[in-house]
Amino acid sequence: MFCWALVGMMAAAGVFADGAGTVPDVAGAESAIHYLVVADKTGPFQVVHEGQSHGGVISDVVDRLVEGSGITVHHHVFPVNRLVHEVARGRIKNWIAFDAPVWDSFRGKGRYLMEPLFLTRHVMLTCNPAIDSPIRSVHDLSGRSVVTLRNFRYPGLESAADEALRLVPADNFRTGLELVSLSRVDGFVEMASRLRYHLSHFDGQRDCMREVDISSVVPNYPVYLVVDQDMPEDLIALLDARLEALVASGEMQRIWRRYVPLTLPSDIQVKVHD
Prior knowledge:
CATH topology of the largest domain: D-Maltodextrin-Binding Protein, domain 2
CATH class of the largest domain: Alpha Beta
Number of domains: 2
Largest sheet: 7 strands, mixed
Signal peptide: 1-17
Number of strands: 15
Radius of gyration: 19 Å
Distance between the termini: 19 Å
Keywords: Signal
Protein name: Transporter substrate-binding domain-containing protein
Structural class: alpha/beta
Helix content: 10-25%
Strand content: 15-25%
Number of helices: 6
Shape: elongated
């Protein structure tokens, strides 16, 4: 939910690539890795301000993987559709991004590193007291209207969307949170980590909100770093080894907690039902 589906959007005109506004010719540049960042919508995994990459869980991990190795990481921020288009055309070499097998965003152009970054956990944020907690099946959502992010994928939920379940696409998190806050919809389904991150920056009405587990409908699944399938084997081996060490040392968890709280911030009055 990290999930993000990199299909179906109209191509955007502007591209930010290290501030240059164009895609560099990087063929043969094996001493550099080109990290692909989605413009907006992927916080706290990738944080973007004014078209520039400014950290995030996955962004910090990628930077740490090559620290002290002599390899340079270039962050490139793209609108989501343009990102996939550039990879499909082979215009960027030695790229690294994040993906999940259930999304398959890069359609055979990438190769997953061995160690998963994390498992997703989806919840529904709701102000409707009649919503069951937890939601045990799609039948519990019959007749409900549920916000999801436009052009992102929600395995298990999309297949249930019909006249009995209405999915309401939102262009960003703020819109989705406002719809919940104003009781215009029955809930907003997303990864718990992403909802909590954006909720902490939301200044609308929050005291009616509660989290409802929806993992029986949208199952947990792993998210990975994915690299250019033509990346040199020794570079992939380096990334695999360093990611394994990062996870084993607990540093991955420390990076995660810099962006994602274990619980909702105490100043936000949200009733959490797990």
